[in-house]
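[step 3/7] fold_predict: job queued, chain A
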Amino acid sequence: MEELRDFLEEKVFLYNRPEFIAVDPISIPHRFSKKQDIEIAGFFAAVLAWGQRKTIINKSIELMKMMDNSPHQFMLHHSEEDLKPLLNFKHRTFNDVDTLYFIDFFTRYYRKHDSLETAFTKGLSADQDVMQVLLDNFHEYFFDAPHAPQRTRKHVATPRRKAACKRINMFLRWMVRKDNNGVDFGIWDTISPAQLVCPCDLHVDRVARRLGLIQRKQTDWQTAMELTRNLRDMDPADPVKYDFALFGLGLMEKREQNNRME
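[step 4/7] structure written:
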C-alpha cells in the first residue's frame, strides 16, 4: 500500500495544477469569482458532465451565456421573457424541461439562502460515511416541489437508487476540497474533505480496478464507497485528492490507445 500511495501521490502532484483546468468542466465555475455564481455554474457543469469534455465545456458556456454570464443575478431577477432562449437548450438527454426546473429550484432557493452549501448539509454529522445521507436528503430536497418533473430526477443521482453519483461527488470535490493548487475551490466549510466520496467515472473506475482499489464487479454506490475507503487508508484527511491521479492516469491511457490506433 505504501508503494501505491507514493505512486499516486506523484500523479496527484502532476495533475492537480492549474494547467488541468482549461480542458476540464471545472473551467466553467472558474470563469466566475462570486461564490453563488461558482456554485450555480459548477452544479450545471457537473450535471452536464457526460460525453466528450470539449462538448461539455461548450454546452456549459452556451448555457451560462443564456443567463447573461451572471447566473446568480439571473436566478434572482429573470423575467418570463428571459427564460425563452433556454427552451432551445439541450445536451444529450438534458433538455429544456430539465433546464427550466433547475432554474426554478435555484430561483426559489437563492431567494431564501445565501449559499447552496446549506442544501447539501441536511443530516450532516461527524460520521465519516455521512455522504449517503447527505446525497439522499439533497435529492429529496431538490425535487420537493409538487411541479418537479419526473423525467428530471434522473439528472441528479442519489445513493438510494444505488447510483455511484459521480457527477454530484465531483461537484462536492470542487466545492469542499482545500489546497493551494488552484483547481478545487474549497469555498464550503461544513463538510469535511475526509467525508467526500471519490467520483467513480469511467477513467477512474478502470484505473482503480487495475490497481486493486476496487474489487466489486459492478459500478454503483457501494463501488464508490469501496474505492473511497481504500483511498482513506492512504490519506484519511483528504482521500479524494487521488481522483486527480486516477482520472489523469485514465486519460493518459486513453490517449496512448488512440495514438496506437492512428
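[step 5/7] annotate
The radius of gyration is 18 Å.
The chain has a mean pLDDT of 95.
exit 0
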